[in-house]
Design brief:
Layout: H1 6-17, E1 31-33, E2 36-38, E3 57-59, E4 67-68, E5 82-84, E6 92-93, E7 106-108, E8 116-117, E9 130-132, E10 140-141, E11 154-156, E12 181-183, H2 194-200, E13 205-207, H3 217-229, H4 232-235, H5 245-250, E14 266-270, E15 276-278, E16 294-296, E17 301-303, E18 313-315, E19 321-323, E20 332-337, E21 351-356, H6 372-399, H7 405-408, E22 419-423, H8 426-430, E23 440-444, E24 460-462, H9 468-472, E25 479-480, H10 481-489
Parallel strand pairs: 2-3, 3-5, 4-6, 5-7, 7-9, 8-10, 9-11, 11-12, 12-13, 14-21
Antiparallel strand pairs: 1-2, 15-19, 16-17, 16-20, 18-19, 20-21, 22-23, 22-25, 23-24
Bound molecules: 2-acetamido-2-deoxy-beta-D-glucopyranose (7 copies).
Length: 490
């Protein structure tokens, strides 16, 4: 394998890629190519010494590193954007270990042995956008664990042992402000904060499938509302949530089984300064004892148990929303979230429109329903990034004058090997068994020993098993070039 003879392997690789070897800067066991360093699968138990600081991508996956210490590199990595530490044995991360990588965007700590995320564990990662912690044994997240990662957008926490929802992620002053993706599937959550989720899911996709969630009236309310909204994290994994149709009818949330829900979103118009009262659509009165009614407003989420009638906006015990002294910015779409005991038809509307003064219909109306435009957009950009990688590989296969040809006679297999790109998708990892195969795009170049240089060889391009979804959801971040190199040189 590669690691048995790293120096020769690196040399062949560098020759193949047309780089002059820069001998002094690449640690043993690692492959260094321009700005990528891979020390993957080398049985390292500590951080390799003398890693070159020019790297933008550092791959230390598939080793047996046990801890990350403050001094894991000797000088700061100012260019590093991607750090891959998955499949190690990391159980300890010293506070401030990441201050040496201030511009990191993607950090993968999946499949390690983390159990508790201590406060300030990610200090220094102010620009981090994506954090993967899939498949650890995390059961506790201490307050302040994410206090410094202000820019975090995607957080993968699936397949851990969490018993409590990391509330910090919902509270803006402390947590990441721009979180758009939170995966908490395959954990041990039995209760989730419905009110915070209703606020968070305005802007973020929250995945909760495969948790032992208790089917109570608040959860029923949430699931009914999400289903009506066609909220894709729920719709895509509907079968893996509790409270499916039958269960909803069995639990006793409302006195009357079926209730009338208006077919159109009702519009309420008030003048600025007036008091606005909005009845919860389709809620039979009197409200069952203990039933909490949530109102999702353009700014916050309110509930009927808060019991502060002096507040400007409040939900009365009978589920009616009251806003005193309406302001122009109160205009918008308001949803009344309460267990109604059945899944409602798309044409029914538990939402109302509120117009204050002569403001026109707010632009956010209807936006919250399945935002396919955004999905397409993401899909498109990630497809584009994958296509770019494919083109690079094709360029490499056809246009690079292969200098290894000379070495072929001397026992090296040279460039006749295979180039394989893996477009792996973290989302696919976490939902593993659902879409098991088909994440690889393989270019197999036959080992045609006698083909002429310059005559393009016909690569067998097999796209049959490519799951477009896998590719589409993949960003440029996880194109596994390492495998290309390893297969190539092996
Ligand atoms: C990995 O390293 C450990 C000691 O660090 C050694 O005992 C083991 O044999 C090594 N495994 C392989 C496959 O080289
Ligand atoms: C968190 O702190 C405890 C006690 O200081 C320590 O034992 C543990 O290893 C730390 N966790 C991590 C992931 O570093
Ligand atoms: C959040 O996103 C907005 C818009 O994309 C950006 O202007 C802002 O800087 C981001 N905030 C943080 C803390 O990254
Ligand atoms: C629901 O609760 C009422 C009393 O609150 C009770 O009479 C009724 O039998 C319950 N229904 C079910 C299905 O549990
Ligand atoms: C209702 O709102 C109050 C104030 O925002 C909050 O403290 C409470 O937890 C909420 N209740 C539920 C059931 O979400
Ligand atoms: C709800 O209660 C408030 C005051 O307690 C009352 O003014 C209002 O009419 C009630 N709404 C409905 C629909 O019964
Ligand atoms: C409301 O309409 C009146 C005239 O119809 C106009 O003068 C006024 O500026 C409008 N107010 C707002 C907030 O658009």
């Amino acid at each position: 394998m590669l690691c048995c003879d790293p120096a020769a392997a690196a040399m062949v690789l560098l020759l193949c890629l047309g780089f002059l070897p820069t001998v002094a800067t690449c640690p043993p066991h690692c492959l260094c190519a321009s700005d990528i360093i891979s020390c993957s699968g080398c049985n390292l138990s500590t951080m390799p010494f003398g890693l070159p600081s020019y790297a933008t991508r550092l791959d230390l996956s598939h080793n047996s590193i046990g801890a990350l210490r403050v001094d894991w590199v000797s000088q700061p990595f100012h260019r590093l954007t991607t750090l891959i530490l998955n499949r190690n044995s990391i159980s300890q991360i010293e506070v401030a270990s990441f201050t040496v990588t201030p511009h990191l965007l993607h950090l993968d700590l999946s499949s390690n042995q983390l159990t508790v995320l201590n406060s300030s564990i990610f200090t220094g990662l102010r620009e981090l956008k994506e954090l993967l912690l899939i498949g650890n044994q995390i059961f506790h997240i201490k307050p302040g664990a994410f206090s410094d990662v202000d820019s975090l957008e995607r957080l993968y926490l699936s397949a851990n042992r969490l018993i409590a929802f990391p509330l910090e992620l919902c509270e803006e002053p402390k947590g990441p402000r721009n979180l758009t993706f939170l995966d908490l599937s395959y954990n041990r959550l039995s209760k989730v904060p419905i009110q915070s989720l209703l606020s968070l899911t305005h802007r973020a996709s929250v995945y909760l499938q495969e948790n032992p969630l208790l089917c109570d009236c608040s959860l029923v309310a949430l699931l009914e509302y999400w289903t009506w909204k066609q909220y894709s994290p729920l719709v895509d994994f509907r079968g893996e949530y509790p409270c499916i149709d039958g269960a909803v009818r069995d639990i006793n949330c409302t006195r009357h089984g079926v209730m009338y829900i208006p077919l159109q979103a009702q519009t309420y118009r008030v003048e600025p300064g007036e008091t606005l009262t909005v009845q919860c659509p389709g809620l039979p009165l009197p409200v069952q004892e203990g039933l909490v009614v949530f109102w999702v407003t353009p700014r916050t989420t309110l509930n009927s148990s808060a019991g502060d009638p002096s507040a400007r906006r409040s939900v009365l015990p009978n589920g009616t929303l009251e806003i005193q002294g309406a302001l122009l910015e109160d205009s918008g779409t308001y949803g009344c979230v309460v267990a109604r005991g059945r899944y409602y038809h798309p044409s029914e509307s538990p939402e109302v429109r509120v117009l204050v003064g002569n403001s026109s219909i707010p632009s956010n109306f209807g936006l919250a329903r399945r935002s396919s435009a955004e999905h397409f957009n993401t899909a498109f950009t990630t497809l584009a990034s994958c296509v770019v990688s494919i083109i690079l590989v094709l360029l490499y296969l056809y246009l690079t004058p292969c200098r290894c040809r000379e070495t072929r006679g001397k026992g090296s297999r040279g460039c006749g090997g295979r180039a394989i790109i893996l477009c792996s998708d973290p989302q696919e990892v976490e939902s593993g068994q659902r879409r098991s195969n088909g994440k690889r795009v393989a270019f197999l170049e036959p080992q045609a020993e006698d083909s002429e240089i310059g005559v393009p060889k016909k690569p067998a391009m097999n796209l049959d098993h490519v799951s477009t979804e896998g590719i589409l959801k993949n960003g440029s971040r996880t194109v596994e070039r390492t495998n290309t190199y390893q297969n190539h040189v092996a």
